[in-house]
Amino acid sequence: MPLTPRRTISVSEMREEIIRLIDNNQEVIYKIAFYSQQEVQGLLGEVMKRWERNNYEGRPIDYATDEEVVVLYKIAKKISSMKPEVLYRMYGRDYIPH
């Protein structure tokens, strides 16, 4: 069976996919896991400054550079590939009622 080549995804599509995988996900643990990442926090800190300088127009993700979007996308894909139960064990200790 021949392999079909993967379609290259554009940066614009990556932005939308990050929102779909993380922000629009019904499972809150995906948001917790994504936004808990040090690299995500660092990148989004810079993105938020740019968004603020532009009077909060549009969405913060629109102010991420192409390189930042690629990094955020890879992290979002990795996290979204994991089962919620696994993420709760890794990140959800403080969010699970005792």
Write a structural description.
By secondary structure, the protein is mainly alpha-helical. It has one domain (11-91). It contains five helices and no strands. It has helices spanning 11-23, 28-36, 38-53, 66-80, 84-91. The longest helix is centred in the middle third of the chain and has 16 residues, at 38-53.
Radius of gyration: 15 Å
What structural class do helix, strand and pairing data support?
A: mainly alpha
Number of helices: 5
On the 0 to 100 scale, the average pLDDT is: 91
* Contiguous runs where pLDDT drops below 50 for at least 5 residues: none
Number of domains as seen in the coordinates: 1
* Counted beta strands: 0
What is the N-to-C succession of helices and strands?
Answer: HHHHH
Helix content: 55-70%
From the structure above, extract its key features.
98 residues, mainly alpha, flat
Secondary structure blueprint with pairings:
Blueprint: H1 11-23, H2 28-36, H3 38-53, H4 66-80, H5 84-91
Helix pairs in contact: 1-4, 2-5
